[in-house]
Design brief:
The protein is about 30% helix and about 30% strand. It is α/β, with parallel strands linked by helices. Strands 1, 2, 3, 4, 5, 6, 7, 8, 9, 10 and 11 form an 11-stranded mixed β-sheet that branches. The longest helix has 14 residues.
């Protein structure tokens, strides 16, 4: 056990281990994540419902969304954006690797008779012959990807977009990075039973990488019959960082905002949104 505890304190290289799918595809944790998605007051898996409504109104206005406009939502979850955009008569595709979230989204689309296409797949592996006017990646999903994965995604966006199509996404800023602190924490049933329906012991190690502007929330979950480690990586960005990554893949940054509801950009914000236009 001592050796196991020692291993928890070893700092991995940035993005050395990557198992994000475990968080979204595990039977128990995917149920917890869906519950957070659907809690209209929380900003956890999704933002609160009032913000989402405001965000969709802005997206519809900003990108002239209406009949015939094609939109792909990468990391669509239970369809909180796709459903609302389809109600505005857009042609919508949602991609997510949480089977539970996709099933919920499809049930809602069927109930409302909305012709939304949902794809249960890791969006890093998603391919299509469709072309879109707008690509969304909301709730700072972009930050959970390694540099190589981000390059892959931006290249996909460029390939999937119509000429002069746009990407809208949000990221965590360097202000948010500066507020993060390293720590180690232990609790029985860490996060109030989030990780398992059975009793477990949870260890959280937060590692901060100053040079790379990356934070790792490393969870080690010890149950009676198994031990597992979940690596939750987050990349933090300056506007210049985002511009550099998108420019390398054939995009120009059109605008920065404080959020995906069109709030004017602020240098003090802990997040910011980006509109990148395909060249």
């Amino acid at each position: 056990m001592f050796e196991q505890l020692e291993m928890m304190d070893i700092r991995p290289q940035p993005f050395e281990f990557y198992n994000a799918a475990d968080l979204w595809t595990d039977e128990h944790t995917s149920k917890q994540m869906l519950k957070f998605h659907l809690d209209e007051k929380l900003d956890v898996s999704s933002r609160n419902i009032a913000f989402i409504d405001q965000s969709v109104d802005w997206i519809v206005s900003r990108f002239n969304i209406g009949a015939g406009k094609t939109i792909a939502d990468f990391g669509c979850g239970p369809g909180l954006y796709t459903t609302r955009l389809a109600r505005r008569h857009a042609v919508v595709t949602g991609i997510d690797f949480s089977k539970r979230s996709i099933q919920y989204a499809q049930e809602m689309a069927t109930w409302e008779k909305l012709p939304i296409r949902y794809v249960n797949r890791n969006y890093l592996d998603f391919e299509t012959d469709e072309r879109f006017d707008l690509v969304l990646m909301i709730m700072c999903d972009f930050c959970a990807l390694s540099p190589a994965q981000r390059k892959t995604m931006i290249a996909k966006f460029h390939r999937f977009l119509e000429p002069a199509g746009s990407v809208l996404l949000d990221v965590y800023s360097l202000n948010a990075f500066n507020e993060r602190e390293e720590k180690a924490l232990y609790e029985a049933n860490l996060l109030d039973g989030f990780w398992s329906r059975d009793k477990y012991y949870g260890f959280l190690n937060i590692f901060k990488y100053e040079k790379e502007k990356v934070v790792l929330d490393q969870y080690t979950i010890i149950e009676a019959k198994r031990t597992r480690t979940i690596y939750n990586w987050l990349q933090y960005f300056s506007p210049e960082d985002v511009e550099r990554e998108f420019a390398a893949c054939g995009f120009a940054i059109e605008n920065y905002y404080a959020d995906v509801a069109g709030t004017p950009f602020s240098a003090q914000s802990k997040e910011f949104a980006v509109i990148a236009k395909k060249l």
